Amino acid sequence: MNVKVLLIIVDLTYINQRAIAIALMWSVAGCFGTSGVALVPIISHHGRDWRHFYHIWLIPVAVSLVVTFALLPETYFKRPTVAFDGLIVMQSATEKLTVYQDTEVDSDIYRDLPAYPQRTGVAGFRDRLGLARSPFASWTAAGRCFIQMGYCAVNPLIFWVFVASAFNTASMVFIGATFARVLIAPPYNMAANMVGTVNIASGVGGLFGFVVWSLLICRIVTWLSRRNRGVLEAEHYLVGYIVPILTGATSSLVYGLVVKHHWSANLIFFAYGLNGFSFVTIMIGNTLWVAEAFPRWAAPAIAVVGGGCYILSFAMSFALGPWIAAHGFQWVSIELAILQMVSGLIAMPVAFWGKTARQAIHGRWAEDRSGALRPL
Description:
Blueprint: H1 2-12, H2 15-36, H3 40-43, H4 50-70, E1 82-84, E2 87-91, E3 97-100, H5 121-129, H6 139-154, H7 156-176, H8 179-184, H9 192-195, H10 198-227, H11 239-261, H12 266-293, H13 298-317, H14 320-353
Antiparallel strand pairs: 1-2, 2-3
Helix pairs in contact: 1-13, 2-10, 2-12, 6-13, 7-11, 7-12, 7-13, 7-14, 10-12, 11-12, 11-14, 12-13
InterPro entries: MFS_trans_sf (IPR036259)
GO cellular component, one term: plasma membrane
Protein name: MFS general substrate transporter
């Protein structure tokens, strides 16, 4: 679902609008999604009636299903050729601009995308209602997305991005899976109905992610593109990873020290809020970087980066209990912080250094556009 929403936003927005739109989506979804976890103990009567939670939550899930398949628009649309100052400006499927000098009366450059045949009958009626899929889409194209995902997974740039994201998410799992028993136990002895409010702190941190991206990082990226003669490169988004990596590592470290030395419970709220901020900002950076670096492969690349980090982080969660038992909270937090710093601030920039290798996805399907957002 996340991948679908992100792809729709990427396709609906132009490059100058995309950062704000993606940041807003991740921040709002992160805020309400994480804060909503605080309602789980209340709805389930603290685990005594867990079925009640599923009965209640079935309503928004059903509404979401209807909205997803009935109201979301078809976002594939033609980028029209534009006349500007006696020249013709044409945008390709990868958002590359080409400028032509129009010297013919009936120039072919006005047909940058072919017009597909209008259908009749029931199919034509569905087209007019907006209920039909794009004529360029097919089940074969959908199947090829899985092949493309395999190539994306072994691409070193995408690989290190989802590894760094996975360690960041593992930090969230580390805090989220343990803070309840820490706060209920001495010396905190927090009431069970108040423990869930820590999730609200994480949600508020996610909202601050939008503020930082819109007011700080977007301006830095714009400044970098202006220095590059107005051309925005995927490498410019590297600056967007500095803040989430540092804050994610700091949140792990603070939480481990608080639990070890029994500092104020308010610092646990602060650590989880900082962690929520880190998660949202790194996901914003991932989405924007993938859309810019792999425009034809945005769908499989986002699926690999998003899904890969969840799979790897939750796989690590199975080792979390024995890890804490063997090393203790303080050392686990230090080790997680080191993993985040090494993967995010050393390995990933080294992988990004080879600009020419950015789209070097070799193989039989390397030039295939069947799974692309804009196949032409």
